[in-house]
Amino acid sequence: MDITITLDRSEKADYIYQQIYQKLKNEILSRNLLPHSKVPSKRELAEKLKVSVNSVNSAYQQLLAEGYLYAEERKGFFVEHLDTFSSEEQPSSSLPDDLKEVHIDQSDWISFSHMSADTDHFPMKSWFRCEQKAAARSYRTLGDMSHPQGIYEVRAAITRLISLTRGVKCRPEQIVIGAGTQVLMQLLTELLPQDAVYAMEEPGYRRMYQLLQHTGKQVKTIMLDEKGISISEIIRQNPDVLITTPSHQFPAGAIMPVSRRIQLLNWAAEQPSRYIIEDDYDSEFKYDVDSIPALQSLDRFQNVIYMGTFSKSLLPGLRISYMVLPPELLRGYKKRGYDLQTCSSLTQIALQEFIESGEYQKHIKKMKQHYKEKRERLISALESEFRGEITVKGANAGLHFVTEFYTCRTEQEILAHAAAQQLEIFGMSRFRLKESRPQPDKPALIIGFARLREEDIQEGVRRLRRAVYGT
Predict the structure, then answer these.
(1) Residue 12 and residue 10: Cα distance in Å, rounded?
(2) pTM of the complete model
(3) What pLDDT digit, counting tens, does each position of 297-309 carry?
C-alpha cells in the first residue's frame, strides 16, 4: 500500500510521531485506507519518511490503542473496520451566542459585594505551612478515599471549635463535611421525608430557594417581623422543615433574640417530623456584642440541623462547609452507603492543622477587628455623604448591612447607574423569593465590605451617591 505523508520538520511543528498518527487517522476516516488493508511495516514506513522506527511505532501504538488499527501476530498492522458516521455534516466548532461568556475586566471597579472575603488579609503563608505540615504528616491519607463524612480527625477539630465558639453540642460522628452549603443541602433533602414542606425567610437566600424548587420540593416563604422570621406565619403555614439564619438574618441582617429562638424550638418539638435548618453562615463576626450561641445549643429535642461554613471566615474558594445531623437523620445517612466525600482531603487536613495550631482563632480575632474598623469607616462615610438621606440596618454583625435611600430613583435605576459607575453592588430585590410580594417604598441595597479596599471607601461612596441621585 502506497501512503503519501508529508511531514513538517520545523521547530514549531508537532512531534513527528504525532504528525504520522494524525495523517494515518485522517486517511482511515476518509476511507482512503480501506478496512482490513495492511499498512506498511514500521521499518518500511520509517525508511520512506526518513524518520526513526520509534516515531512510527509510537504512531502505530496510539492508533492501535484508539482502535483505528489492529495487529495480527507475525503479519503486521491492519486497518480496522469502522462504521460510517450517520451524518457527514461536520460539527460546528463555534459555541452558540447565548452560551458564550462575556468577560468583564473589573480591575477598575469598586466592590460592595456581599459574597466574598478579604483575600488581602488572609494569612496565606500560614495556610501554606499548614498544608505542608498536613501533607508531610498524613501523606498516606491522600492516597486513600476519604470517609464519606470527611476525615474523622478533621471532624473532631471542627467539633471542638464550634463547641467553644458557638456552643454547638455534637460528636464528630454527627458532622458531614462537603464542598459548599448547596452540596450539603441537596444531600439533606434526600435524608428528610420526600413529601416534606419547606419554609424559608422572606427575603432570603435565593440560591437555596431555587435548589429546593428544582428538586421538586414545595417551598413556602415567611415574612420577617421585628424579631426575625414570624412565628405566627410559621404556625399558619405549617411547614415540616424551616430554614433560618438566626445569628445574622440573610440578607436583612437582624439578630434573632432568645425569645423567638425558644418559640421556634417549641414549635419544632410539637411534632417528631419537624426540623429546623440553622444556616450559620457568618457567625464569627459580631462587632458591638459578644458572640451569640447557636440556636442548636438550646435544642433539647434534636430538631435542629446546624450548618456552618468556612467561606466567610477563610476563603470561599476553599469550599469547606459542614452540617451537624441529629441522631435520627445520621442513622438514615449511614444506611445510604453510596456517598463520596466532595471536599479535598488535603484541604481538610490543612484546615485541621490551621485550627489545632491556633492560627484559625488568631486569624478570626485579627479579621474581626479589621472588619469592625472598615465597617465603621464605611458607615461614617455613607452618613457624611448622604446626610440623613440614608438608613443603615443590620450593621452589628457579619460582612454586609442593608441601606435604604430617600430618592426618587428605583432600585433597578440605581443598580444600572452603579454599573455605569463601575460599582459592584446588589439590591434587595435579588433576595425576594416571591416576586408577587409588594415592593417597599424606599429602594434598599446590600452593602458588603469584605472585598472593599480601605483606600476605595470614599470613592466608592461618591460613586454610590451619583448612582442614587445622579450628582
Answers:
(1) 6
(2) 0.87
(3) 999 999 999 999 9
